[in-house]
Amino acid sequence: MIPLNLSVPNFASLKLLVMRTLRLCLPIVIAAAAMLMPGDAVMDVYSQTRARTTSSRGARPQRSRYSDFDHVTKAHKMECSACHKFPSSNWNKVRAAAEAFPDVTEYPKHESCIACHKQQFFKGRPPMICSNCHTNPGPRDSSRHPFPNPREIFDRSPKGRRVEESDFAISFPHDKHVDIVSGDGDPTYKPSKGEESCAVCHRTYQPQGSSADEFFIKPPANIGDAFWLKKGTFKTAPIGHTACFSCHSQDTGLEPSPINCAACHKLRPLATPADFDPKFARQMTNEDKIMLTAWRHRVSAGAFRHEFEMHAGMDCATCHSVATMNTLDVKTRRVPISSCATCHATSSLDDGGALNYEVDKRRKEATFQCVKCHIAYGKLPIPESHLKALEAAK
Fold first, then answer.
1. Fewer Cβ in 10 A, N or C end of the chain?
2. Taking the domains of the chain in order of start, what are their residue ranges?
3. How far is it, in rounded angstroms, from Cα 186 to Cα 195?
4. What are phi and psi of 124, to 5 degrees?
5. Distance from C-alpha of 107 to C-alpha of 147, rounded to nearest angstrom
6. Cα 337 from Cα 4, distance rounded (Å)
7. Is the pLDDT at 9 greater than 60, yes or no?
8. pLDDT tens sequence across 257-299
């Protein structure tokens, strides 16, 4: 029962009543909503920590302090060249002379911002809007954060470690590239059979190799059979312009040219459910940004390890439909359970299939989590596709 002093019918008593009521009822409302959430919404709880939106799928809440520039804001949706100039004046300084090429490597000038944000430029000591670019905003210090390109420099900076990912996703047509590129001239790297083209852009990250230590971060002493991230789990992907501009340069004239930013950089779609738990992942990666980014986008089996002996010997096309892969469409990047069932679903539990074992354990124990392949998904109901794969294996 909520106590209320009816002898003092004033605003303070009414406010106290409302606050106590909310405090008691809000957990009940949240619990009820969770029970009614659709499967995708439940999965999204475990997915990404920053939900990306486009104008057609809802607007992101307005930032009140102007301390983080957001390309998604309606007023910021304009031609890239309105703010970014190609090439930047410092393009030949941010990279070593032998590796430098004309590129966008510096923040826009003040005139790109002040026309709309004059009020914010002169509000606060220091103005919060200045912290988008400047490390210590003020008239005596003009030093800036590294620009997000080149990424290898930006990611090592304090701002780079704080910003989880760009407002943009990259539109890359695999079908147009897979037959053009093959090998990269690196005699020390031997791609697996069938992945000569893929190896140009994708390499096994932090491989275990011949080391006896299979974990990236030492696991707890009582880990038992529970999942813990191992080396060689992820594949890398290009994080800058270097690989792209080797062909798409001013010299070659191959479209899209370096000045056509919007051909590749698209506003990131609404966050899709990923087999990823941010808090869980940070314990195992030591804040490694490459790992966290790759893991945050895993829409199939979050625990899949590329360096595992049997996996490393397969063609990339065994699991990935490279020719139809659209980097902006999560459905085309998802690995179907049929690819896994080839080895991991057997005619019976006694034959040792991992899928058979996990499903059998879940049927016997409702609280069992399928951590052989999954992180966040392992807490959810067994998908019908998995049950059909077991039936097909019989």
1. N
2. 79-163, 340-393
3. 14
4. 95, 160
5. 6
6. 58
7. no
8. 999 999 999 999 887 889 999 999 999 999 999 999 999 999 9
